[in-house]
Amino acid sequence: MEKLKIVFMGTPEFAVGILDTICQNKYEVVGVITAADKPAGRGQKVSTSAVKDYAVTNNLRLLQPTNLKDEVFIEELKSLNANLFVVVAFRMLPEVVWKMPKLGTFNLHASLLPQYRGAAPINWAIINGEEKTGVTTFFIDDKIDTGAMILQSETSISKNETAGELHDRLIEIGSKAVIESLELIEKGNAKPQQQDDSLITKTAYKLNKDNCKIDWNKSGVEIHNHIRGLSPYPASWTILKDNENEWNMKIYESIFTEEEHQLKIGTVITSKKELSIAVKKGMLSIKVLQFPGKKKMKTHELLNGIQLTENAMVI
Q1: How many CA atoms lie within 13 A of 270 on its CB side?
Q2: CB-side exposure of 136: number of CA atoms within 13 Å?
Q3: Per-residue confidence (pLDDT) for residue 45, from 0 to 100
Q4: Which residue in 209, 208, 86, 241 sits closest to 150, CA to CA?
Q5: Strand, coil or helix: what is 114?
Q6: What is the CA radius of gyration of the chain?
Q7: If DSSP codes are grouped into helix, strand and coil, which group holds residue 86?
Q8: Which of 78, 149, 254, 267 gets the most CB atoms within 10 Å of its CB?
Q9: How high is the pLDDT of residue 23?
Q10: Phi and psi of 103, rounded to 5°?
Q11: How far is Cα 258 from Cα 85, in angstroms, rounded to an integer?
Q12: What is the dihedral of CA 132, 136, 140, 141, to 10 degrees?
């Protein structure tokens, strides 16, 4: 049994939960690698990653390379004398990095690989209406999310669960999977299994403005899944048109009800407290939304300050 000396690599909040679990389980973390600080927002105030904030608070050795192939960084990384690298929500590593530690470099991915390789597995599992997902730990190789799997842990997805809710649950499930993987590696009991590429049917494409826009030609269930799969971030959006007015509207929460109607798809129906949209074979009730320049709010709060006509449509 070889005592682990770990370098952890990650950037967002998802990675913080895993790093904290590693530390709480008394593993030796000799270094933390995260993204460089960068200006963000209107004031271009310098923004730090969630992983950096955690590392600083807990007095962990921190490196923030802008170039992962930089010779100075490579030498610094070697000097940490780690025998295992653990990667969670970071970026693609060059071979000189992932091949460095004696016991390898493993990644935690938020899907049941080989399904949903890519940047946004949590979102796409919900958008596509999956009933189950999970996490996979695997040893990194020279392609994205293709390495030999150490273990997987599965969980069900409820029909109204949002990406944010699933994200938080997967931190917990992923934390347990990482600790179990560390135990297997430390004891020399890991038996990595190659992924079967013939099983791939779904990919976790990077999210962008185009694929976050709601397609009202889809079924009500598909639109509902799209909304919850992008909630709370980056959020699905549409254009609300009412006579001469147009607004880019973000939608965070909806309820789909199956019913027959003769309304044109996209027709907006409002009362004092409710806003519903006619979709195929039913109505989509919008519960939480956001208008340009306004905060995210419940629908009845928005309707207190805006009146829509019977011509209102989403497009």
Answers
A1: 21
A2: 24
A3: 77
A4: 86
A5: coil
A6: 23
A7: strand
A8: 254
A9: 97
A10: -95, 5
A11: 49
A12: -50
Distance of CA 217 to the CA centre of its chain: 26
Report the phi/psi class of residue 129: left, alpha or beta, with left for phi > 0 and alpha for psi in -120 to 50.
left
Tens-digit pLDDT profile for residues 34-57? 999 887 766 667 789 999 999 999
Q: How far apart, in whole angstroms, are the C-alpha atoms of residue 15 and residue 177? A: 13
CA 233 to chain centre: 9
Residue 79, burial from CB neighbour count under 10 angstroms (0-12, 13-18, 19+): exposed
What pLDDT does 47 receive? 86
* Tokens found for residue 185: 């590696």
- Helix ranges restricted to H, the chain: 13-24, 50-57, 71-79, 95-98, 121-127, 163-186, 209-212, 220-229, 299-303
Strands 132-139 and 105-109: antiparallel
Phi first, then psi, for residue 248 (nearest 5°) are: -80, 115
Helices (H), 33-86: 50-57, 71-79
First to last CA, the chain: 61
Domains, in order of start, for the chain: 5-203 (3.40.50.170), 209-314 (3.10.25.10)
Q: What is the pLDDT of residue 41?
A: 66
**Among 280, 225, 211, which Cα is nearest to 255's?**
225
> Residues of 221-247 as b/e, b for ≥16 C-beta within 10 angstroms?
bbbbbbbbbbbeeebbbbebbbeeeee
Q: Cα 170 to chain center, whole Å?
A: 10
Q: Tell which residue, 117, 93, 71, 120, has the closest CA to residue 7.
A: 93
Provide DSSP, 191-205.
--B---GGG---EEP
Q: What residues of the chain score a pLDDT lower than 50?
A: none
> Reduced to 3 states, what is the DSSP secondary structure of residue 2?
coil
